[in-house]
Amino acid sequence: MKEISGHTIPFAVLGHPIGHTLSPIMHNRSIQSLGMDAIYLAFDVAPDNLMRVLKAMRDMGFGGVNLTVPLKEVAFKGVDEHAPSATLARSVNTIEFMKDGRLKGHSTDGDGFIAAVRESFHTGIAGLSVFVLGCGGAGRAVAITCATEGAARIVLSDIEQSRIDAVEAEIAQLAPTVKVASAGTAGDAWAAASLQADLVIQATPVGMKTGDKPLLAASAFRPGQFLYDLIYMFPSTGIMTEAGKAGATTANGLGMLLHQGARSFEIWTGRKPDIDAMRSALEQAVYSS
Asked: What is the mean pLDDT of residues 166-186?
């Protein structure tokens, strides 16, 4: 990495907490490969402070910012302008600082998810029956992405029924031909919905800690199924292990992290990142640990 100077352009990811993030690892490897005078950092920012911090970062000359949990929905409400991707997802994971000082919000989660599913399972979303565990920022984004990509059926779950209802209503409006239903907030309905799905998407924070009990056991899965866990800091999470016992094909969220990050970089710089360098950095961090 080049020596930092007064000309170095900073980029960053914000979250609360932020210690788990691998975004600096992949972005800094790409920055180094491209020979850019830039650096990518990580900061812990509480939701109540987010908009004040983003404006300060704009004024300090940051080149762009990523957001992770629990800041995506806060940013959606606070930015000055929404890209179509953010409007669709009602979530913001990428902040673009416009020349006139406005904050423009994007969501690259959907693009990253579709690219990762194709890469991991060699399939698209069209025609699949999908079960989504968690309807927060990333869960909402992937659920709506699945709907607009032509999923045949989407079943939603979350610990808060209001989140389920909100995403269900949005899908009904955006993709009225897609069948959408609720599996409620807990219990046997989750396992039944999972068992019937072609693709199960784990979009909750459960599994980010090594001691977390998986939300679904092996009995909720079957051969021929796909499980995509958005959690990326472990080679295999608890729910991936359970699904694998039943013969399902599984993948962690590393591919989604990679491809959503690459899209963010393009938005900020207008340049293609070094995808191979980013992937190598992520795989080294996760699979060598």
From this structure: 95
pLDDT score at 103:
98
The overall average pLDDT reported for the chain is 95
Mean of the pLDDT values across residues 61-90?
94
Non-local CB neighbours of 200 within 8 Å, separated by 6+ positions: 130, 131, 133, 194, 216, 221, 225, 226, 227, 228, 243, 248
The band of 2, judged by pLDDT with boundaries at 50, 70 and 90, is low
Tell me the pTM. 0.91
**Rg for the chain, CA atoms, rounded:** 19
**Selected catalytic residue, list 55, 72, 104, 213:** 72
pLDDT at 229 over 60: yes
Q: How would DSSP label each residue in 183-224?
A: --SSSHHHHHHHHH-SEEEE-SSTTSSTTPPPSS-GGG--TT
Architecture of domain 9-107+255-287: 3-Layer(aba) Sandwich (3.40)
Our answer to whether residue 179 is catalytic in this structure is no
Cα(118)–Cα(116) distance, integer angstroms = 5
Question: Hey, is 249 helix, strand or coil?
Answer: strand
Rounded mean pLDDT, 169-188: 94
Contact status, residue 220 vs residue 195, Cβ threshold 8 Å: yes
Residue partners of 143: CB distance under 8 A and separation at least 6: 130, 132, 135, 154, 156, 167, 171, 201, 203
- Domain 110-252 in CATH 2.30.130.40: no
Amino acid at site 6 = G
Q: What are phi and psi of 68, to 5 degrees?
A: -125, -175
At residue 1, does pLDDT exceed 60? no
For residues 203 and 208, give the distance between their C-alpha atoms in angstroms, rounded to a whole number: 11
Q: For 160-179, what is the mean pLDDT?
A: 95
Q: Spell out the domain ranges in the chain.
A: 9-107+255-287, 110-252
Crossing angle of helices 23-34 and 275-287, in 10° steps, is 140
**Number of helices and strands (H, E) in the chain?**
11, 12
